[in-house]
Write a structure and sequence with these properties.
- There is one protein chain.
- The protein is α/β, with parallel strands linked by helices and 247 residues long.
- It folds into 2 domains: 1-38; 55-246, 3-Layer(aba) Sandwich (Rossmann fold), CATH 3.40.50.150.
- The chain is 36% helix and 23% strand.
- The chain is built from 10 helices and 11 strands.
- Helix 4 (59-70) packs parallel to helix 6 (93-101).
Amino acid sequence: MNQSIVWLLNEKYGGRLTKAAEEDIARLRAGEPVDFVIGYKKFCGCKIDLRFRPLIPRDETEHWIQKITEGRPPSVRRRSTLRCLDIFAGSGCCGIAVLKNAPNSHCDFYDIDDNCLKQIRLNLKINNIDKKRYRVIKSDAFAKIKGRYDIILANPPYIGLAEKKKVQRSVLNFEPKQALFAKDNGLFFINKFLSQAKNYLAPEGVIYLEFGYNQKKEVEKILKRYGYQNFEFHEDQFNKWRFVKIF
């Protein structure tokens, strides 16, 4: 708690303990996540506003997004325009990081939640992304998606309903449950995504999918079920299986 208070005071109040700061400290003590109290999260050099209460971007997600922005495959780097899809976009952090770090990129953001769509548009504005470089569209998974993409980014809900008891109370009480939990032991949206994703991938394109630390074997089974042949599993910075690269 003390560390969160120091972070709050430094980030939002210049280190000063004002009346407003004391009110925010009370929010922290009530269990509200510090990123919501501060109002934003730093992510891959971007400022991700959180006022519409999307899922807070995780450090584990930032880890694999950094790998993309720092080392895109040669076949992708050669493209004059890099077409990116951010599906289950939430705050828009993943796609915005690509837009910010790859000047030749264009990104389509898809989410089903109206608050997330508002949040994405605001974050694009905050990060000074030219309107010609993106589209923000309401869609349930691939329902309204057309065309093919060089990079597809997916961070779907993947916590199984039976795992709720393991989730921090602050997450349960303050973050959107629809962005966290999924049926079928957390695999419902992963299965739905992989059943269609390759139909939207451009030649020599790459898919990046985040999943739960305990889901590697099941994700591999799903990949093989739908005929994916080339894929690599990667660990996060905490040495837990976290994402798969499909190419």
